[in-house]
């Protein structure tokens, strides 16, 4: 059984929308940050959705966000692509109260779950956008604005013929890098070694980014204290599975 957080970050090719987009690789064929799935939404999730999204939800629109107005304060802002059921996102927001978090997810059960965690934890530093993260980045996030970005346990698409569907690929990383402020970080994590190698290669090839660690660790970073171990990850470690963190910085 896959980690719910992983299930929320699948990729799929998207054809060009119009002839006017021919010079824009992201508009032509971008890696979506999700695959649509049927999922049961509990009554509790629906209740928290109805109660919390009017307070912390942001609608997708082709208009750049003003982070200070969105959160009601000036603070560093971190963008997360796919949060699954939201447990990790809520824990990170709780231990980093001085940071704003824009959480992007399409799956309604996960959005409802994070709404519940936000309400229970009284977390004022989270805003949720229920939409494709690539389009949110492209349409709503100003260049050079983010303090950081998280991509945790994206779907590994382990079969070779499906590798093109993986989320972490050059067009997305170029877009993310352009939205990071100088010194901002991009943090990816996976429990698939082959995908970890691909992440390292893709991020290393992006000219706006530099690795935060040297090659003495193979280019992989130790897990930072702010990223908690998921239940899935803890089980994998007990079974001897590896987990790899890749952390780069905007030059």
What would you say this structure looks like, in words?
35% of the residues lie in helices and 17% in strands. The chain has 251 residues and is α/β, with parallel strands linked by helices. The protein has a seven-stranded mixed sheet, with helices on both faces. α5 (87-95) links the parallel β1 (77-81) and β2 (100-104). The longest helix has 14 residues, at 43-56. Residues 1-25 have low confidence and may be disordered.
Q: Class in CATH?
A: Alpha Beta
SSE-based structural type: alpha/beta
Dominant shape: globular
CATH architecture: 3-Layer(aba) Sandwich
Low-confidence stretches: 1-25
Strand percent estimate: 15-25%
Family: Belongs to the class I-like SAM-binding methyltransferase superfamily. TrmB family.
Pfam families: Methyltransf_4 (PF02390)
EC number: 2.1.1.33
Protein name: tRNA (guanine-N(7)-)-methyltransferase
Summarize the structure.
This protein is of the alpha/beta class. It contains ten helices and seven strands. It has helices spanning 4-7, 25-28, 43-56, 67-71, 87-95, 108-121, 133-140, 170-179, 193-205, 231-238, and strands at residues 77-81, 100-104, 126-129, 146-152, 180-190, 209-211, 244-250.
Descriptive key words:
single chain; 251 residues; alpha/beta; Rossmann fold; 7-stranded mixed β-sheet; 10 helices; 7 strands; globular; disordered N terminus
Write the layout of secondary structure elements.
Layout lengths: L3 H4 L17 H4 L14 H14 L10 H5 L5 E5 L5 H9 L4 E5 L3 H14 L4 E4 L3 H8 L5 E7 L17 H10 E11 L2 H13 L3 E3 L19 H8 L5 E7 L1
Parallel strand pairs: 1-2, 1-4, 2-3, 4-5
Antiparallel strand pairs: 5-7, 6-7
Helix pairs in contact: 3-6, 5-6
